[in-house]
Amino acid sequence: MPEGINNGSSLQNPSNDSGEIRMKFNQNWCASPSKVASHFGTSGVAVAAATGITHPLDVLKVRLQMQLVGQRGPLIGMGQTFVEVVKKEGTRSLYLGLTPALTRSVLYGGLRLGLYEPCKNFCELAFESTNIFMKIASGAVSGAFATLLTNPVEVLKVRLQMNPNARSRRGAISELQKIVRKEGVTALWKGVGPAMARAGALTASQLATYDEFKRVLIKRTPLEEGFYLHLMSSTVAGLVSTLITAPMDMVKTRLMLQRESMSDGAYKNGFHCTYKVLITEGPRGLYKGGFAIFARLGPQTTITFILCEKLREIAGLKAI
């Protein structure tokens, strides 16, 4: 009889477990349309605001990455590049490609940050864990998928950033038409492989670091949800993501600006581009524009997370 009781209780555990899983599923996935809109909207608005503030640094980063293509030699720094760009092209050139950049930020940023939590919830349901590896996987999937959908806007943005004559919205449309006419529709997905790898690595390093570091700070320090916790966590996330993604960002830019790089011969893919950069420009070539990347990505990460957390609080959503 005791054995039968034990068997009965053991049969109840799976039922309880499945009930808990169903309850978690309902809590995590059965959201109203307004909640879903708020979830993705807060992410998109936060990324767009951060992008608008840091866009001049993104223009300088692209110019730095296109220095001495296929050559070794001394590189000029961000300060000198800034002076040369402003002197030759005017201050408005620092906002080249702003329209597609903001468009991409709303779409890409909303998807990249917005998909992280559902992916993490799925990992929790599937593997009953939200450890650091699950967070890294969630970030990688959400970042790569968001880039796959929005790569054409990124191609348009970097083309405009290298074209001082395209300053207006009409310039963006004309550039888009020119790319399709001369290079075909598939040209809008140039560099999509390295872009997806970079976005996956960026989102994984950024969100997983932010999420995990915030958890550690809450557990081991008196800090609670608020400005200082978000500031410290986002600063660390910005540093880690820059170190990991700078080479991928450089390769992505070179592939997207393929026509401007033809003096060194066409890059077949991301691996070929990396190989040619290492052979012709040395290891430092992979970190061209690295300081500009951090100068942009650091503040952008901080602004994005602080603003996103505040908007989520206003919208009645839980913190990241």
Automatic annotation (TrEMBL):
Keywords: Membrane, Repeat, Transmembrane, Transmembrane helix, Transport. InterPro entries: MCP_dom_sf, MCP_transmembrane, Mito_Metabolite_Transporter. It is a multi-pass membrane protein. It holds the Pfam family Mito_carr. Signal peptide: none annotated. It is found in: Membrane. GO terms for cellular component: membrane. Solcar repeats lie at residues 38-122, 130-216, 225-314. Belongs to the mitochondrial carrier (TC 2.A.29) family. PANTHER family: MITOCHONDRIAL DICARBOXYLATE CARRIER-RELATED (PTHR45618). This is Mitochondrial substrate carrier family protein ucpB.
